[in-house]
Amino acid sequence: MQKITLLIHCKDQKGIIAAVTNFLVKVEGNIIYLDQHVDVEQNVFFMRLEGELTNPLISVASIKADFEQTIAHNFKMSWDLYNKEIKPKMALFVSKYNHCLYDILGRYSAGELNVEIPMIISNHLDLKPIADQFNIPFHHVPFTKDNKIEGEQQQIELLKKYEINFIVLARYMQIITPRLISLYENKIINIHHSFLPAFPGAKPYHSAFKRGVKIIGATSHYVTEELDEGPIIEQDIARVSHINSVEDFIMKGRDLERLVLARAIKLHADRKVMVYSNKTVVFY
Amino acid sequence: MQKITLLIHCKDQKGIIAAVTNFLVKVEGNIIYLDQHVDVEQNVFFMRLEGELTNPLISVASIKADFEQTIAHNFKMSWDLYNKEIKPKMALFVSKYNHCLYDILGRYSAGELNVEIPMIISNHLDLKPIADQFNIPFHHVPFTKDNKIEGEQQQIELLKKYEINFIVLARYMQIITPRLISLYENKIINIHHSFLPAFPGAKPYHSAFKRGVKIIGATSHYVTEELDEGPIIEQDIARVSHINSVEDFIMKGRDLERLVLARAIKLHADRKVMVYSNKTVVFY
Amino acid sequence: MQKITLLIHCKDQKGIIAAVTNFLVKVEGNIIYLDQHVDVEQNVFFMRLEGELTNPLISVASIKADFEQTIAHNFKMSWDLYNKEIKPKMALFVSKYNHCLYDILGRYSAGELNVEIPMIISNHLDLKPIADQFNIPFHHVPFTKDNKIEGEQQQIELLKKYEINFIVLARYMQIITPRLISLYENKIINIHHSFLPAFPGAKPYHSAFKRGVKIIGATSHYVTEELDEGPIIEQDIARVSHINSVEDFIMKGRDLERLVLARAIKLHADRKVMVYSNKTVVFY
Amino acid sequence: MQKITLLIHCKDQKGIIAAVTNFLVKVEGNIIYLDQHVDVEQNVFFMRLEGELTNPLISVASIKADFEQTIAHNFKMSWDLYNKEIKPKMALFVSKYNHCLYDILGRYSAGELNVEIPMIISNHLDLKPIADQFNIPFHHVPFTKDNKIEGEQQQIELLKKYEINFIVLARYMQIITPRLISLYENKIINIHHSFLPAFPGAKPYHSAFKRGVKIIGATSHYVTEELDEGPIIEQDIARVSHINSVEDFIMKGRDLERLVLARAIKLHADRKVMVYSNKTVVFY
């Protein structure tokens, strides 16, 4: 049986759930999981539905066309219907830090991530040996302030060539240009090494140490044009104390970065994240 | 507008969600929140729905009768429909420990708990002053091994008199008798001072200390005839280390007990807990 | 046997620990616990020592005089030696929020806090019934923008009269004046309802909701003239998600505020906190 | 300057800290960090001291001899003095699960672990490609119930040949024989995939699922002859709910296993763990 994931959002209205579930009955689909949320302030309705299609004679394509013309049209929905068997293609952008890269490739090799990783892009050569070790094509796209546009162009061509669905910045340390952001809206995941909105920008562990906080954090979010201001996908924290140096903060933070980024990748790959008003709805 | 909470469980079947949501449309109700869960192993369907009724001419009583004869009958459902405005009546059973009692009555007075507390029962007089301080009727029901049955009878009469809906054992330290358990099935909440199933029974902090664990816990659960084996509602933990004595464990544990019990009370009072196969479905 | 707590800080130098521990041997004291910390950046040494004096013929007063003239003088130490049996006197400042007040008075009544609470001060009468309920003198000190100086003067006189050692702002919601801060330097504990330095100032839960964070927090800190910028004593967090409204944030936050403030009070009362460079050394 | 770590335990007596710190002064050493603990129940004193030797003319060997004949002899101490620059040699035992192996080798390659990993031993060939990928010698030591003694003998010879200091069972899934345990007492670290003492033995995630717990855990401990009963080094937990299947427990558990094992390795490698009465003193 074909498994599907349906994501919907629209203005909140009476009868949406009834309409969608009736539609599923009509096309001989079973609901495996249904999650729904209403943002009362914004008056927006969100739904995520996992189902399976029991009649092989009714194709996914025909279901999509039918849904678009009836339900989606009536309720003015934004929606996507995914075939669960098709894994999204993910590009890794890295720079010199290796811990997130090791972690992601280890999980990928262990079969934990529901993605394909066709390639890695970096502005430095430092991490090429790791890409080689895991047999992932590595593309060196160096650039300076002066030729950043050319660098971006090269990145975009690679993303097209490999048909990349979403991008993960694994401690990439470079600011993404508006053009690339607009091509991958809510599809570029960054890991920031602080508990946002505390300590945005550079050297957050140093700032946290100076402030004398008792807890540090990490935040994964979608990249928008405002630095470290995009929709937050996941956050986690670790306790620190006076005995910890800045170096300890950085070391403890590595575990946070690894975990929080890996969770965000999983959530995104499993189509569990929806974005609205610079916030996320995350259906666990 | 009348707010309602609907809880359902039944054998998993095609079309349940569609039927229920269509029913809501029919009786002019809006769905505010819908949560659903399928226990795949047991093949059981669970649903919790919060809604509001927009037509004052359609009474809750008529809705209940209609639902029973149509949907509930067709799908062989176990179900309850609550009026959200009616607070459940909760009895507190205590013994000599005062910290959970202070915490619950403080929260109650601060308006945090969606319950009424018409009375407190204890086998000792130690905590009467606290009941007095908060103006809650306190009933002293002492008993020994030999007259436990009479004690239980007295408890049951008090529970009836006050029309108690559910019971909270706030470190009550006495074993509840099967008769009382059967009268309040899945309606007696206990707090056990360990991370069950580790350290059931007496003196769990001492056992945890002896074993050298690095984390202690507390568990709230419904009382069943098997001691500390009932359906778990909520658990939480705290870190300990070699510098902590048994007394430190006990002191840290008090915070866990307070919090975990208060959360369980809130979940139960808000009708967010369903029980099946000695496990709970908790719709947060 | 007399139990003592010794707190020391001074420029880091060779031989401090040896000198202090030799001194203890000389005055026939046992070390029960010794914690020490060196702030490498600032080159400052911190020590906390719990001991017991075995010879009743050697008085605490003579030990203090001896220590001052020898060890403290040689190493140019700032230090304090406390008799563990003497509980510090704590004043509560409250306004209209009752949850922290209930929690603190419940813990106090349950014997969990190693303090005396001789009185409560408030600018409103709302919480007087709670003070009455727990039999704590309640002083109503109202003031407006125009007569804040007079209000402060009245507060200071009450603090003197009751010989208050430290002040706890239990959601007091008023800005403390520089004069009072200077009289109680590092002795006024505030609870801020966010994970500082994120969301300082007013309405942090609303800001956190707007930003779409996945974790909220609370922070207890000593009050300094810079609002929400004082040395952090303790922080904790709770997970939130898209299903939580601002009201849910506030409700979850109440538990954080209670816990984090109670921990800070305990740490301060047990003389486990030392302040330096706007940070705390907390010897757990 | 030579950096050293000194670990001591002995019967608790007056004057130990003074004696040790005076000794450090005598051999021209600075104390960088000193942690001490007294197990009051057992009357045992523990100390961990990090220091640096400022006089290159006083050798570590002479310091050790001096310490043994004076301080250690007087107080009947068990003690070790480590040169911080010399990394312990760690052997990995694996079977078929790959996630802990990827994690450890990723951390090792990223320079996070203060160890050398000269080799990996496995009873299966499945993970050889990972060892190859990271260029670590892989020794296949298969055995059956009938020739377990020969297998063990081969393991012991490899451990000797590589001068292994401690062993890490990275989800090894085999019971270690008493002979090997006695050769590496408190030097074999296991990761158990439950919150011990809950769910010892096989299939803990399945048992946790069946019991309906709300939190799962992982435990790293030293291996003793009693299965899953050895001294606990570190534990951590993750929340689960009714929506999680056994497979979800297993997936979430992988993160716990990785983290908890990695922390235990770090603590052991940094000589921060001392064992006594089947418990650990962990100096963070």
UniProtKB/TrEMBL annotation, chains A, B, C, D:
Keywords, sorted A to Z: Hydrolase, One-carbon metabolism, Purine biosynthesis
One Pfam family linked to the record: Formyl_trans_N
Family affiliation: Belongs to the PurU family.
Gene3D superfamilies, alphabetized: 3.30.70.260, Formyl transferase, N-terminal domain
Source species of the chain: Flavobacterium frigoris (strain PS1)
Assigned EC number: 3.5.1.10
Protein name: Formyltetrahydrofolate deformylase
Cited InterPro entries: ACT-like_dom_sf (IPR045865), ACT_dom (IPR002912), Formyl-FH4-Hydrolase_C (IPR041729), Formyl_transf_N (IPR002376), Formyl_transf_N_sf (IPR036477), PurU (IPR004810), PurU_ACT (IPR044074)
Catalytic function, reaction form: (6R)-10-formyltetrahydrofolate + H2O = (6S)-5,6,7,8-tetrahydrofolate + formate + H(+)
Enzyme active site: D228
Keyword Calcium annotated: no
One GO term of the biological process aspect: one-carbon metabolic process
Coiled coil is among the record's keywords: no
Superkingdom of origin: Bacteria
Domain ACT: 5-88
Function noted in UniProt: Catalyzes the hydrolysis of 10-formyltetrahydrofolate (formyl-FH4) to formate and tetrahydrofolate (FH4).
Protein's pathway: Purine metabolism; IMP biosynthesis via de novo pathway; formate from 10-formyl-5,6,7,8-tetrahydrofolate: step 1/1
Gene Ontology terms for molecular function: formyltetrahydrofolate deformylase activity
